[in-house]
Design a protein that fits this description.
The complex is a heterodimer.
Chain A (H helix, E strand, L loop, with lengths): L9 H32 L8 H20 L11 H23 L6 H37 L7 H7 L1
Chain B lengths: L3 H9 L4 H8 L3 H8 L7 H11 L3 H5 L11
Helix pairs in contact in B: 2-3, 2-4
Classes of the chains: A mainly alpha, B mainly alpha.
Chain lengths: ~160, ~70
């Protein structure tokens, strides 16, 4: 099938890519925010936001796999254990607080919900650390392989000489 | 279109892709892809590569109309 002609020039193409990029991240963070709010308002009923959770998981897996495959980690953050710990701490803290709030209704005293939230926070922290450490290892392996110097093909050298 | 002029100049200077990449401030893969004609660099990157190789934009990136797309 013949590919359709692109109606955009280079500048327009770049602007469209930027718009799509911002649109993607807006959708990603809004979806995450919607899930967190739903988990607070619906208690622990996972079925309420299972669809959003599946979509977010698929998107996250796609982005992670493609980035690792192409030897890309992040624009600003270096692949370091300290950055992974910080990111996992933030994730653990958010999950801990959100779950503590949503579990309040099931406990007579707030300490029970806070303790449950803390356990969930710690589990989230550990799972994030494992996921980030494995991803970092895979990324390093891939980036190393991609940075290997190829041998200049002899045919090319003869051709250009 | 493969950029053999760039590859030739690099080989002439006995420079590896990794070395050129360092001097131009990009990854080795990017240099490899430009030489293979699979990535079109921005004008800023073209200038950085030319500076690293001690040549002008014309020397590396100008193609006469008849030669354009010849190696595609």
């Amino acid at each position: 099938m013949k590919a359709k002609k692109n109606n955009l020039d280079e500048r327009q193409e770049q602007i469209l890519l930027k718009i799509e990029h911002k649109g993607f991240w807006l959708a990603f963070w809004l979806l995450l925010a919607a899930m967190l709010i739903q988990s607070i308002t619906s208690g622990v009923d996972f079925r309420v936001y299972a669809g959003e959770c599946a979509i977010l998981l698929i998107i996250s897996l796609y982005v992670s796999i493609e980035c690792i495959r192409n030897g890309i980690w992040d624009r600003k953050i270096q692949p370091k254990a300290s950055a992974n710990i910080l990111a996992s701490l933030i994730a653990g803290l958010v999950m801990g607080v959100v779950n503590a709030i949503s579990l309040m209704r099931f406990f007579d005293k707030p300490w029970g919900a806070i303790a449950a939230g803390a356990v969930i926070g710690v589990i989230t922290f550990l799972l994030c650390m494992i996921a980030l450490s494995v991803s970092m290892r895979l990324y390093r392996k891939r980036a190393e392989k991609m940075e290997e110097e190829p041998e200049d093909i002899e045919e090319d050298i003869i051709e250009i000489k | 279109m493969r950029n053999l002029k760039m590859k030739f100049r690099r080989i002439e200077l006995d420079m590896s892709q990794t070395e050129l990449a360092k001097r131009a401030g990009v990854t080795r893969q990017t240099i490899g892809l430009i030489e293979a004609g699979e990535f079109n660099p921005s004008i800023n990157l073209c200038i950085a590569i030319c500076r690293a190789l001690g040549v002008t934009l014309n020397d590396l990136f100008w193609e006469d109309e008849g030669n354009e797309g010849k190696e595609e």
